[in-house]
Amino acid sequence: MQQQMETTQKIQYISKLFQSTAVDIKDELEERFERAYINLQQQINGLSDKDMHDKLSQLVCKEKQHEEISIGFLYIMLTDPALAPKSYRDLTLVARDGMNMVVSNLTMLVAEKYNKLTEIARRQLIWLLRELVKHQVLNVENIIWNCLRQAGGGDVTPKNLFLVESLLDIFIEYRPWLETQSLLIQTVVYNYVRLIEDHASPALTALRHKEVKFVISLIRERFSDVIPLGRDFVRLLQNVARIPEFEQLWRDILHNPKSLHPTFNGIWQLLQIRTSRRYLQCRLTPELERKLHFLTSSVKFGNQKRYQDWFQDKYFATPESHSLRSDLIRFIINVIHPSNDMLCSDIIPRWAIIGWLISSCTNTIASANAKLSLFYDWLFFDPLKDNIMNVEPGILVMYHSIRSHPSVSSTLLDFLCRIMKNFCLKHEDKIRMGVYNSLNKILEKQVIPNIQPLFESPKLDRELRMLIRENFREFVSPAAPTGNVGPPMYPGASSVIQAPVFKKEADQRSLHQGAIMFGSGGAATQQQPQPQHDLQHMQNHYQPHMTNTADLLEHSHAIDSGGGGGGVAGGGPVVGGIVTTNMADEDNKLSIIPPENNDGETEAAFSEDDEDIKDVKNEENTDDDDDLPLSKVRLKEKPEKPEKVDLPASISDTFETFVTKRNSFTWEAFLEDFRSLPASALDDAQLQYVISNTHLILRETLPVQNIFPESKTDEKNLAKSISYPIFGLYRFLYENEDKSKKPFQTLLTEICTRIPETGFLLLYFMKVHVKLQTRKNAQQSAQFKTNIYRMICDAVDEKLDDCLARDLDLLEKENTNIYLWLLPDIYREFKSIAINNSDLLRITLRCIDARNLRDLMYYVAQGKLTLFKADGLIECIRDSLVYETFEQLCLWQLVQAHDVPLKCLQDILPELESANHPEALGYLLLLLKSEEPTNELIRLLLSRETKSRGDPFVTSALRFWCQRSEEKLSEIIASLLTSKYPSSSPNKRKRPLKGSSALNSTPSADQVLSHLEHYRRSCRHGTGTGLYVHDTMQRALQTAYTHSTESTKKQYSDLFSLAAEDETTAVGRRGGSGRGRKQPTSKKDSSSSSANSKKNSDPVKTVYTSDEDSSEEDWSKQKISQAKKRKKTINETINSD
């Protein structure tokens, strides 16, 4: 009886917080919340407030009790609206961690259990969230981020709308708090721009108006925070471009970008920035993300139909839900990157899921948006920075669909041809270049064997084939006919198609410059298999199952300018198709498709019927890989064991033992015998037999995944991670460093060549080996033997720095954490190569986040890591100017951590451009503020090019120096200006000789005057004009005026007017009504020497005047007529001011 009561009580508690059915089982999280609530009730039941506070204050001293009490109060606040305010007050009184326990548990609850919360709990969640924001509790933004993820796209149910509007109200009410969270601003803007698209119903007009007003104001006021959202933000903006407020925003982006932010240069700046995966992820609910991961990692190709049907019923049942397809496609392309092991398995590939999402869409606008999402990364693809995995699905959908579902391929090809021209007319050439780069990378990496079966398929209509030839003439065979194409499809001999050639050097660098070979064969002729490339030890095929599919959506031709969008260049974003990053490139994670066999009936199976699959499987042709499932293809591709060859007796036994047992001990025993074997003891066949078996065993015994342990402190896991046979080779080399015989060198060369991971695995081995040996014998530390790595480099005949950069690049792509773990050792042991190495620096910067940056700075501060040295650092800085903004900001943080003095960086000052290098200029300006002005610094600053609006960097530096060292600054600038006019030739300037360094290392007179003029303009309110008062500057300006041409005098007339007639006069500072000069007391005084004039002249007051009767003395007594002309010009200028 008591047990039944306890069971009933638990059910009652669960029902307060979570919705549950009869078949639901409580998980650990639910039980923990319930247990904490019961425990809290037992502690405080019947106590007064004072007694309760005293008792809880004692209990929270214990960490476990503190957690239980915090969760108990959280349970009450979420389930009892009446007691929630009192519970929140009590919690604030007893909490010892600033509510961190509540925030972390609430974050977990929202992420994992939001959909199971009762309606009361969801409303109380919003109430509690508002309180946490109101009191600015730390890390509350994590809860908000998870709440925004729960606001699903394509969902207009009351439950979802309540969450969307409630969060919006919090953001509006606590806008000042929101504006302190830069990352949260980006997330809020990205999410609400996407959600506004779904709220087009008249019933949602009020909500939509509130959303639009808030988002537009946030974008306009915080545009600098919005810029990092990048190209996918542009894609979302196009979907709402018909809303008047967004239409005006589009006009500003296209035609008046500076009105949004001074550093914003237009639409192309946004399109060049790859949107972070974080924002693509936040548009999928956690539940939907889990389902999608399951589909792409656990469902076999051919068994996906029931999952797709469930997906369709669950998420695509309403008209508004079609917009979710674009979110899913962008997530699959940019976030889900399968490993090599997944690619060669029979798991459903990404292209099949994307093909199903596009082909099952019945809304034309959503279909166009989905196609754009598929090809979006193609339009801006840069082979040096972007990931081949982002363009792989697009080509594979078309390639696998062309035979069985040509309408899908036709639709996508037509869309791709037209989007290149119509997406953004102003940047059509750049977009075309991006698509060409994508195709070249696809062919280079053998994603498909050749492009002809797709571009020249007879199943494409004639008009489309002509359109393809017009847009992709570089990729189609020149011999291919333009009319109806019938068999044979290709000419008998293989034709060589050159990659597109462009005049601009930048275009040539961006494009793959090799010939693309196409195999020969006809429609009825089976092609010979193409040689397989060893790509990260992977030789695999994408092989769709044979099946029949329902008729697919007919393709629409043009990219319509109406209905949801417009074209970016045409004054508004283009229809649906509208266009749209620390991640490492994963070029090696590709699948290699065998040459097309036109006899096969392989189909692109997006959603197949089980009956059709069974019928087709009975007709397998084992002679053709196209008719085999992937599992059987993998068996056929498995390398055959080399035919046995008799070996010399000295190595025969140990080698056979190694081949049989395949472990590290037998491998090292064989190496011991093989190392001293002379070349004469082996013939070529025997040596190849050893090499082939060795490569096969080393490759097969090396794990495909999880080769590195999760824990880097557990000795057992570390030791296990280097127990595989390939590490036995490194251990053997560690103990036998002296030169070996030729057969051993040949074996080592072949291993390093055939197994690309050899280099970075050796680096990992040395780190772990040294760590373990040092722990065993603390008195004698093991050595990090870099000469072993040099031996590996010599074996592949490459330079050490090239090998190191390549291996670390591969390691970072394989495991970023291990790469960062090895980094201090790499820079310590290879310091002559690693320090100031731009390649290694770029690899590091592209993969780190804020936490990694913090750890690197810790290493630098502790002396464990040195990335830079003074000599050569400036070259690293020059190379970094093209990095992404976050990478550059990280770089400057690391430079600051090294306490690099300004003198090591100052030579780059004249090279930096205000518009293109804001990161470098911002950091250097902070360095300048801590320095005193020197001749060298001023020379470099004034050597910077000035534009019509001046150089704000130079102006800023001069202004803060003027506040501290005005006289010194004036003297330095005056000296530099005077040096431009040699006194030996007052009427004619001396020109520097050809080859003189003065041309490059010192500013011209015009540059100095230009900077001084722009500085003068920044002093319009009377501040900072003291720079021109000092005698040295007065004399310098007078000298400059005397030796300047008439055009220069006219150009800088306002600047020259600040100079007195001679050294006895002071400068009249610019006032509110005009500008004047102090008059000399007499002509006699003005012609006397400077010393006598200072002694004898009467003090006079500064005169501010703007009328033509003001006295203007001549600048030079020898040129009175010229002075009169100038007097008139100056006074006219003053009057005009």
UniProtKB/TrEMBL annotation:
Keyword set, alphabetical order: Cytoplasm, Nucleus
Task: Spell out the PANTHER family in the cross-references.
Answer: INTEGRATOR COMPLEX SUBUNIT 3 (PTHR13587:SF7)
Subunit info here reads: Belongs to the multiprotein complex Integrator, at least composed of IntS1, IntS2, IntS3, IntS4, omd/IntS5, IntS6, defl/IntS7, IntS8, IntS9, IntS10, IntS11, IntS12, asun/IntS13, IntS14 and IntS15. The core complex associates with protein phosphatase 2A subunits mts/PP2A and Pp2A-29B, to form the Integrator-PP2A (INTAC) complex.
The answer on whether this UniProt entry bears the keyword Cytoplasm reads yes
Q: Where is the composition biased (Acidic residues)?
A: 598-613
UniProt KW Cytoplasm keyword: yes
Q: Tell me where in this chain the Ints3-like C-terminal domain is found.
A: 696-1059
Record's subcellular location: Cytoplasm; Nucleus
The primary site where this protein sits is cytoplasm
Instruction: For the region Disordered, give the residue spans.
Output: 586-645, 981-1003, 1063-1137
Task: Please describe what this protein does.
Answer: Component of the integrator complex, a multiprotein complex that terminates RNA polymerase II (Pol II) transcription in the promoter-proximal region of genes. The integrator complex provides a quality checkpoint during transcription elongation by driving premature transcription termination of transcripts that are unfavorably configured for transcriptional elongation: the complex terminates transcription by (1) catalyzing dephosphorylation of the C-terminal domain (CTD) of Pol II subunit Polr2A/Rbp1 and Spt5, and (2) degrading the exiting nascent RNA transcript via endonuclease activity.
Q: What is this protein called?
A: SOSS complex subunit A homolog
What are the residue boundaries of the Integrator complex subunit 3 N-terminal domain, all occurrences included?
Answer: 64-469
Q: Which GO terms describe its cellular component?
A: cytoplasm; nucleus
Compositionally biased intervals (Basic and acidic residues): 634-645
Family per similarity comment: Belongs to the Integrator subunit 3 family.
* Natural source organism: Musca domestica
